[in-house]
Amino acid sequence: MSRQVSRSPAIRHKRCGPARRKGTPRRIELVAAKKIRVIGGGLAGPEAALQAARLGCEVDLYEMRPARSTEAHSTSDFAELVCSNSLKSESENTAPWLLKQEMRRAGSALLAEADASAVPAGHALAVDRVEFSRRVAERIAAEPLIRVHREEVTQLDEHDASTLTVLATGPLTSPALTSELTRLTGSSHLAFYDSISPIVDASTIDMSKVYFAARWGKGSPDYINCPMTKLEYERFVDALTAAEAVPAKDWEQIPTETLHYFEGCLPIEETARRGRDTLRFGPMKPVGLDDPKTGRWPYAVVQLRQENLRADSYNLVGFQNHLKFGEQARVLRLIPGLENATFLRYGQIHRNTYVNAPALLTETLQLRAHPSILIAGQLSGVEGYTESIASGMLAGRYAAALANCEIPVIAPRESANGSLTHYITHAESKRFQPANITFDLLPALEDELRRKIRDKKERHRIQCERALAAWDRWLAASNVLQSTT
User: Fold this and answer.
1) What is the β-pairing status of strands 300-306 and 313-316?
2) Cis-peptide into 247, omega within 30 deg
3) Domain check: are 278 and 209 in the same one?
4) Which of 68, 60, 122, 58 is nearest to 91 (CA)?
5) Number of domains in the chain
């Protein structure tokens, strides 16, 4: 397998150290550093740090919490999940499953801890978020090559040849570091608004009005389903669209014409304003959820997913919003079964920041103009927990290769990881939006094979088979398998 690298004028290929023997990796001069600095203690940062340390590199891991918090975080824990607790589908031959399978084969540290702290969630991987964070912290503490610094980083020295920096500060990057990024990139960031879902005390749910089921019977029936009649749905939509929103804070004061939401995580009130039935085709979709009392699908349904291993709290799936807390309580108690609910956390909204990756990043996640700085996680333009961990996994491996004067082997285009990175670094820069992993990002099957195979599931199975084969070849070629033992 040939070694690939994104060619940039700022990178000069040159031997590093003694003359290179035939067949050994080429080395580069610019980032011949042994020390790696990772900034950000969310998902991508700890994964990058653990990967680099496993490959023998010394790592300084910086996290500004608790000295400085963000608009969305409530703890100072590593790997805090601020929105959902789901890492998406585990159904075989789906795109999220494929991404996670690749990560497992590559020895993703955080995915291993997610598996170890999983809670029942049908065909999805959901975690007890407290247990997950605890396990990640323990793994970091047990790694002797990682030094943790609880302080805010406000400056980036792009000229420091002794250190490689992995910037994984996420969608809530501090204003000071955002200013540094703007200085380095020479362009404004794209910003959108993201939001988080409410959590309800399980003991306050009226179980006589709800039922357990998984859509289409896939996986175990772990979701609580709150069925609605047409009248109940209409009343709920009316109350939702009339509810009072939280006033904009200083940090979210931007011109109205530039405010836009990521389509994959719209506040529920924004979805409702797009049409009376929009929610019934979105987060309140009833299809595949037979109500045992009627034997039919309800008119609409609200799903609740288990939040922790004790099963004493549930989050409202897809119900992220930006309403005042009192308004949320009033509107959400119109949902059958939640009339007397106690909410442990209300929905919130926060600013989300990411770089214009197609214009700024190479496929090794390095800044084109400053290749000693790598961008990982949601800041790079991937969307979702699993995608952020995957990005951190690659960044940690790429940084370790660079720290050892080697040219990183780029993840194969046929793989889910490679396709996701290919998208964020090759998309149309003027209309760039963050992306979750989907089959649309993977290379399509050849026309002849597509015509021959009409069944979409079979086509996806073949794409997964090809992706995993390419991924395994990449692991072997880049000697990554050695780091998973």
Assistant:
1) antiparallel
2) no
3) yes
4) 122
5) 2
Co-location of 160 and 250 in the same domain: no
309: Cβ contacts below 8 Å, ≥ 6 apart: 117, 119, 128, 131
pLDDT per position as a tens digit, 287-320:
999 999 999 999 999 999 998 778 889 999 999 8
Asked if 74 and 164 sit in the same domain, the reply is yes
Across 305-317, b (16+ Cβ under 10 Å) vs e yields bbbbeeeebbbbb
- Domain's final residue, options 290, 322, 351: 351
- Check if the beta carbon of residue 389 is closer than 8 Å to that of residue 49: no
Looking at residue 410, its pLDDT comes to 96
Higher pLDDT, 454 or 436: 436
Which of 283, 316, 351 is the endpoint of a domain?
351
**Long-range contacts: 459-468, Cβ < 8 Å, 24+?**
460/93, 460/94, 460/95, 461/93, 463/98, 463/439, 464/93, 464/97, 464/98, 464/101, 466/414, 467/98, 467/102, 467/414, 467/415, 467/416, 467/419, 467/442, 468/98, 468/101, 468/102, 468/105, 468/415
More confident residue, 13 or 310: 310
Pair (326, 392) in one structural domain: no
367 and 396 housed in the same domain: yes
What is the rounded radius of gyration, in angstroms, for the C-alpha atoms of the chain? 23
> What's the distance, CA 316 to chain centroid?
19
Pair (95, 215) in one structural domain: no
Beta strand pairing call for 118-119 and 199-201: unpaired
Indicate if 389 and 273 belong to the same structural domain: no
Q: Name residue 213's beta-bridge partners.
A: 223
Q: Is 4 among the domain residues?
A: no
Helices and strands in the chain, H and E counts: 13, 16
Residues β-bridged to residue 211: 225
Residue 110 is which amino acid? L
Give the C-alpha separation, 381 to 360, whole Å. Answer: 11
pLDDT at 32 over 70: no
Please count the other Cβ atoms lying within 10 Å of the Cβ belonging to residue 295: 7
Residue 11 lies in a domain: no
Q: Is residue 114 part of a domain?
A: yes
* Region of 311 on the Ramachandran plot (φ > 0 left; ψ -120 to 50 alpha; else beta): left
Three-state secondary structure call for residue 240: helix
Q: In terms of domains, do 219 and 157 share one?
A: no
Q: What is the pLDDT of residue 350?
A: 66
CATH number for the domain spanning 219: value is 2.40.30.260
pLDDT above 70 for 207: yes
Distance CA 422, CA 413 (A): 7
The residue segments making up the domain with residue 409 are 35-189+355-484
